[in-house]
Amino acid sequence: MPSWKSWPVMQPSDMNTFSQLLDTLLGIGTEPRALTFLQVSVRGVIVFIATLIMMRLSSKRSLAEKTAFDAVFVVIIGSMLARAINGSEAFFPTLGTGFVLVFLHRLFGVAAYYSHAFGILVKGQPVVLVQDGRMQRTNMFWEHISKHDLEEDMRLDANTEDLSKIQVARLERSGDISFIKANSVKQQAT
Predict the structure, then answer these.
(1) For a Cys staple, 130 with which of 27, 61, 82, 169, CB 3.0–4.6 Å?
(2) What pTM was estimated for this model as a whole?
(3) What does the angle CA 38 – CA 43 – CA 48 come to, to the nearest 5 degrees?
(4) β-pairing, 134-135 with 127-131?
């Protein structure tokens, strides 16, 4: 068995050759319009793999886009990484920034877990749209929910058109409207 001393060692000239090959393959320093199909494809494969790693490091909820906090994260990551593929931004710094944003999203998520106030700041809070069968028009106005929007969601999610059957309806942090029917509250009390 050969000793570790006989194993090949990478020389500085080998590193320069590898660096040059990588620069050529990725089109580093090339104007975006001059990138070849192969260069854009290699960039795309690397960004795809890096994005999968980023999403595994991030929380699963970010892909569900449950709140504006998650949706903003996904939009920024997508927009930024597309620039790494098309060459309009520096390749490696853009990938690195993607990992920084994943870390920041995760950090904010942990902070929101431990601090309800911080969670409200970055994720928002639910808003009551219906209370005891009566629309809360001021809340609906500020949240841009029309009577027709509410009625549509009542039909689709609460299976009713009768507002008097709704004990509480909330616009949740995810943007969905949740309904608690009046009779279900009475049934639970008995």
Answers:
(1) 169
(2) 0.70
(3) 125
(4) antiparallel
Residues 158-183: tens digit of each pLDDT: 999 999 999 999 999 888 899 999 87
Please report the sign of the dihedral spanned by the C-alpha atoms of residue 120, residue 122, residue 123, residue 128.
Answer: positive
Domain locations in the chain? 20-121, 126-189
- Provide the β-strand partners of residue 15: none
DSSP letter at 163 equals G
Measured from the Cβ of residue 101, the count of other Cβ atoms closer than 10 Å reads: 17
Q: What are phi and psi of 130, to 5 degrees?
A: -135, 135
Q: Alpha carbon 92 to chain centroid distance?
A: 21
Q: Is the dihedral of CA 141, 146, 147, 150 positive or negative?
A: negative
Q: Does domain 126-189 have CATH number 3.40.50.300?
A: no
